[in-house]
Amino acid sequence: MEKKFSNKDVAQLLRNVSAAYQVKGASSFQIRAYDLAADAVEHASSDVRALWETGDLDKIPGVGSHIANYLDEYFTSGEVRHFKTVFKDIPDSMFELLRVPGIGPKTAYKLAKTGVANTQDLEKQIKSRTLLDKGFGQKVLDNILRGVEEFKRRSDRILLPVAWGVASQVIEYLKKNKNVTNADPLGSLRRKVATVGDIDISVASDDPKSVVEHFLKFPGKERVVEAGERTATISVDGGIRIDLMIQPPERYGSLLQHFTGSKHHNIHIRRIAREKGLSLSEYGIKLVEEKGAQFSQDTFFKCETEQEFYRKLGMGYIEPELREDQGEIEAAMAGKLPDLIRLEDIRGDLHTHSSWSDGQDSIADMTKAASSFEREYIALTDHSYPSLNYEKRLKEIEQYNYSQDNIRVISGLEVNINADYNLQITDDILAKHDIIFVSIHTSFRQSKDEMTQRIVRAMENPHVDALAHPTGRLLLEREGIEADWEKIFKRIGQLGKFLEIDGYPNRLDLPDNLVKEAKRFGVKFTVDTDSHRTEHLKLMEYGVSVARRGWLQKEDVINTLPYPKLKDILGIRD
DNA sequence: GCCGTTTTCGGCCCGACTGTTTTCAGTCG
Fold this sequence. Notes:
Number of helices: 24
Strand order of the largest sheet: 11-12-13-14-15-16-17
Strand content: 5-15%
Oligomer: single chain
């Protein structure tokens, strides 16, 4: 029951209203209003139902008085009378068919009306040619069928590092064409969102035709979805779509800016541009009407770089990770953008596992590998299994520190917070280690109040330093826990303790929006890999990308400190 | 339906590709 009211469910409801409006030919602005509200709800940093409870629904940008009233009715009674009339005469199957790529509201409606029950039925009916004489041409049906096949195969989203890997291969391949002067990822991938839907790539070239031809021959290609003059789309293994966009080098900045998004960021800056009489596109900045005397009538700025693009709009350069319309535009205009943390700022990794618990490699191997990444220190934080021989493990770490001076090894543990609020092991064992992470690994579905208490009590234990992967989410697998984050952040801030940003690919936890929130409470962070084998140690960049999306600077993150300072802050004795 | 540093009314981002109803609609990003 509770699931029906998640942000994702509410967003889906609003998208369905938008689709129904499109079928019924409502005003395009009304349609867009529902789409924007749906996006805003889906990406809101708070639970939409919690906002409703406190009467703060209209604080979500894009949700105004009308939609707020409808949602009030929805949360109160489970349905909305107005929406029911909107959905009248529209078969339910339309909304399922909409999930197939290439099928929009109009087509979905038409299919549903001809009696297509769902995607399986759609596939069957296309193959048995029953739809041919019902207003669909062969080419359209072929295209839909390919969409259905793709839909069946693909999972909704891809983990950031997986997408990054595919994109890197494509970019490397593209650069083999001598007409390609530059190539970069675009979209949510470039903004380093935790999961991405498809892969967009930009290319700077004066010979787009040859680049498109080259792209269509990419070795991993499954099929060509479309191919034009300066854009093309292919799909690769697993139904992942790769979009290519090409502009000449002198417009490359405009292209990057346009397709990096986010949609909301671009809508906002275009609104600001319009107020200045400017129109923005992937071709550049164009003067549409004279307002003030800054520009002559025929001015057109192509923008070779994004820096130039933002400068022309009177803003500082906005890093891609910030482009979510979460205050970065205002900050850019006021010259108050943060100086974001970089991968090079990281000096050590504070959350890793060895073969003492569930890791694959020995402490010596983990440490050598960390040293090869030029880390100054590494904390081994094995799980606090009750059966572990803690004394022997501590001895091994101590001896290892004596045996070399390339890297400092810090003795640590990752300790479960039990459902009864107690920690997995006793304080006397905790006291013998230099860093203690606590984390939730059981009873994920406790009530919000219990969960909040559980975490706060654990953090109040004087031996505890940091909360590891705070929400416990597993991307594409499991939702995070429900807790009163504001309360938790406030308490951790008071205690002067730390929140972890876990960079493990399917965690990326604390999530970026909560990172930004926690920073407001003065909380400091540690960005770690949670490595379980030596190869994982290189995944630090993904943790850093979460930190950047959360507006963190170097000084917000304790493992940017040199060891002597880190030692002080963690209270490590010699 | 949303929204406000000239506005509570009158605007609302911009363009590519495909198929086909050859002047445009549908879909996508």
